[in-house]
Write a structure and sequence with these properties.
The chain has about 90 residues and is an alpha+beta fold. The protein has helices at about 20-30, 50-60, 85-90, and strands at about 10-15, 35-40. The chain has a two-stranded parallel sheet.
C-alpha cells in the first residue's frame, strides 16, 4: 500500500471554507504532500487524513541503541566499549 500523502494515495480533506482550504494546500505544498481538498459548506469537516500526516511527521526519531560490541559512533574504528563507552562507564575518570 502506498504512503499517505503520496501521488498514489493522496490525503482527502473536507473543509467548510475556502480560506481553510488554501491554508491546507499551502501546508501540503511546504511538506511535499499530495492532498485533495474539498470545500463543502453544508458538510462537517473531515481532517482525519491531515491529522495522520502531521502526527507521523512529528514523531521524533530515536538514535539506534549502541551496545558495547558495536563500533563507536565517533568513527574512531574502535569498539564502543573500548572508546566512548569507557567515559560513560566511568564519568569521574
Amino acid at each position: 500500500m502506498a504512503r499517505l500523502g503520496s501521488h498514489k494515495r493522496p490525503a482527502l480533506v473536507r473543509v467548510q471554507s475556502t480560506e481553510k482550504a488554501e491554508e491546507i494546500v499551502d501546508l501540503a505544498q511546504e511538506c511535499g504532500w499530495k492532498v485533495i481538498v474539498g470545500v463543502e459548506p453544508d458538510q462537517i469537516e473531515d481532517l482525519s487524513d491531515l491529522r495522520k500526516l502531521t502526527r507521523t511527521e512529528a514523531k521524533p526519531c530515536l538514535p539506534p541503541k549502541i551496545t558495547g560490541n558495536d563500533y563507536c559512533p565517533c568513527r574512531s574504528g574502535k569498539k564502543f566499549k573500548k572508546c566512548c563507552g569507557i567515559v560513560l562507564a566511568n564519568p569521574g575518570a
